[in-house]
């Protein structure tokens, strides 16, 4: 326990130093950021990201969904996807570091097929993002948010017989990776995949950290290739790392002080409402 606390303290110090450097750099590059998105939308994106980081720190998931559904209300969907990439990468790296490398290695050994297909499909599907219209993107973002949050809220848990595990791994990984490359979120399909395998909660959190972490690296590489993350958009994404990490830190500190199950349900309800609004925008223009 003492080593865990010391390691967590060191990690917090490193993050504080990195945040200070990032804030200074973002201040210097604010003119470039404002060339991509107006100041009031920058502030709006920061607030949404702060909320997403807090919820991820408190309950372990939902930051990409919150950023997508929240930012998508006012911001172009391709810019939203670009904005979430670096916060997802940094936050998932932090989550893996907190869980430890031992559980991470065990997760890779057991779920390597799922990890492989998720990573490949994120890279592949990310290349199609720039060819999709804005209205279509709103629907692509909104439908999975509503469907996957509703499934979790209703408590449905699929059951997979042992002899069907391998095809289920490939099928679930294909769906999650495709959604990840196009919409930047593969968390809810991963949760359903692990629930179907009856994965214990403690082990599930470690496995999620690895899948989210490796997937976020693939998302970063995929959208470098697609052009979504480019010289004009990466600075906004880098700026959003700051509120994401601050929110996660607060979520870690305060997460044990409230009923997490009730908090999770309220979060899912809010996401469903936001997702319905995204679908409305996509269908009505």
UniProtKB/TrEMBL annotation:
<feature type="transmembrane region" description="Helical">
    <location>
        <begin position="36"/>
        <end position="55"/>
    </location>
</feature>
<comment type="similarity">
    <text>Belongs to the 4-toluene sulfonate uptake permease (TSUP) (TC 2.A.102) family.</text>
</comment>
<dbReference type="Pfam" id="PF01925">
    <property type="entry name" value="TauE"/>
</dbReference>
<feature type="transmembrane region" description="Helical">
    <location>
        <begin position="234"/>
        <end position="254"/>
    </location>
</feature>
<keyword id="KW-0472">Membrane</keyword>
<feature type="transmembrane region" description="Helical">
    <location>
        <begin position="266"/>
        <end position="283"/>
    </location>
</feature>
<feature type="transmembrane region" description="Helical">
    <location>
        <begin position="174"/>
        <end position="197"/>
    </location>
</feature>
<dbReference type="InterPro" id="IPR002781">
    <property type="entry name" value="TM_pro_TauE-like"/>
</dbReference>
<feature type="transmembrane region" description="Helical">
    <location>
        <begin position="111"/>
        <end position="129"/>
    </location>
</feature>
<feature type="transmembrane region" description="Helical">
    <location>
        <begin position="136"/>
        <end position="154"/>
    </location>
</feature>
<keyword id="KW-0813">Transport</keyword>
<dbReference type="InterPro" id="IPR052017">
    <property type="entry name" value="TSUP"/>
</dbReference>
<feature type="transmembrane region" description="Helical">
    <location>
        <begin position="209"/>
        <end position="228"/>
    </location>
</feature>
<keyword id="KW-1003">Cell membrane</keyword>
<feature type="transmembrane region" description="Helical">
    <location>
        <begin position="67"/>
        <end position="91"/>
    </location>
</feature>
<dbReference type="GO" id="GO:0005886">
    <property type="term" value="C:plasma membrane"/>
</dbReference>
<keyword id="KW-0812">Transmembrane</keyword>
<keyword id="KW-1133">Transmembrane helix</keyword>
<protein>
    <recommendedName>
        <fullName>Probable membrane transporter protein</fullName>
    </recommendedName>
</protein>
